[in-house]
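Re: Re: ligand-bound prediction request (bumping)

Still looking for help on this. To restate: I need the protein modeled with adenosine-5'-diphosphate bound, output as structure tokens. Inputs repeated here so nobody has to scroll up.
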Amino acid sequence: MNIGTHGGACGHSCCLRVQDLTVKIGADTILENINLHAHCGEMIALIGPNGAGKSTLLKTILGQQAYDGIISFSVPGSRNRKPKIGYVPQSPAFDPGDSVTVADLFACCMSKRPAFLGQSKALREKISVCLERVHSESLIDKRVGTLSGGELQRVLLALALEPLPNILILDEPLSGVDVEGMETLMDMLDEIRKTYDLSILMITHDFSMLSRYADQVILLDKQLICQGTPGEVLNSEDFRRVFHRKGGNL
Ligand code: ADP
Ligand code: MG
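Reply:
Sorry for the wait, this slipped through. Here it is.
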């Protein structure tokens, strides 16, 4: 196992490289010999049937799962600096009756002061700036449990962007979001990666969004089955075989 930085010989100022990655849990091989390369400013969509190992791959990159192989990052400024990774988990559930507000949620992550004591003016301003990044300042006093799927994803995205990461990882951010909300979220991700020049790695089952937004699509089914532009992957024999055989979302 090896996490480190590398020289970025690909010519981009920062990138993520996964080489010969294998993940075993107990006796089961969950991922086998995965190789991928994500440049900054790029949006990469990870697709595959249920149980393909997509979430496991993200957790491994996040450092939450043991593995064999190499995961390395090159970060601008220093060869030894560790990358900052922002993570939006798969649809966390919040109780609609719970009184926790968006501001409370940010306060828990950004301040040592107990959230029930309220936020200082300075912290509230900082939270507003975070929410502005996803055009959601108006949500600051809403209760988290009452947010729509799209609003919740925007709030979680704003949390993942503080501090600004080098790589943003999202696990099925479009599930539970209506069509209009999906477009808003994808437009926002597109704007964020251009503005902050960060790599985005996201799992999605919504193939209709791929051609418009993704630079690269990776089809995973325990192994990396195929990889390329959205057109190349969606029109491939591999794509038809994997999703017809497994009864995917086509
Ligand atoms: P996906 O996100 O593509 O649906 P996952 O990465 O969640 O797939 O899971 C891939 C496989 O790994 C599944 O068969 C799942 O049961 C297994 N798996 C994931 N996490 C664990 C775990 N902690 N213990 C045992 N098996 C696991
Ligand atoms: Mg998953």
